[in-house]
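Figure 2 data, in text form.
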Amino acid sequence: MTNRKPPGSDWESWVDAIIREGQERGEFDNLPGAGKPIDGLDKPHDDLWWVRRKLRDEGVSYLPPTLAVRKEKEDALLAIEALSSEPRVRDVLEQLNERIRAVNRRPGEGPPSTVMPLDVDEILAAWRQRHAQEAADVSRSPEPAATTARPAKRGWTGLRRRRRG
């Protein structure tokens, strides 16, 4: 704890002296944020700045359910492209539809929901078509060279290169 301000001395000069002595002792060295701009200095005052910082630092985000289900729909439609099993695709879509129905049953939480349950059979048909197309593309691609071991040949193999003209 610091000493009391000596009587008769100016507040500013006394504080400056305490800061200077602390700097000489190295008490201000290696502080977090040293040399970095002050975060949010140019933004308007926010009484809940500490809540927002804590949520950001903890990686927590909150979306109203009606907005979250939109994001879940986008993520699910991207995720099913990587799945290779039709029952798994159906399961993902049915779980998403149940979540959409649950959000639509509870009005009043955030903006109104405009997300409707997905037609599982229609999406599965499109998924099957894409996967069949991918399988056909793979079967048409040139096959890799055989990996069977052959005895090493020495010298000229007798093959000539064809000239393209």
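Caption note: Helices lie at 11-25, 49-58, 65-79, 86-105, 120-140.
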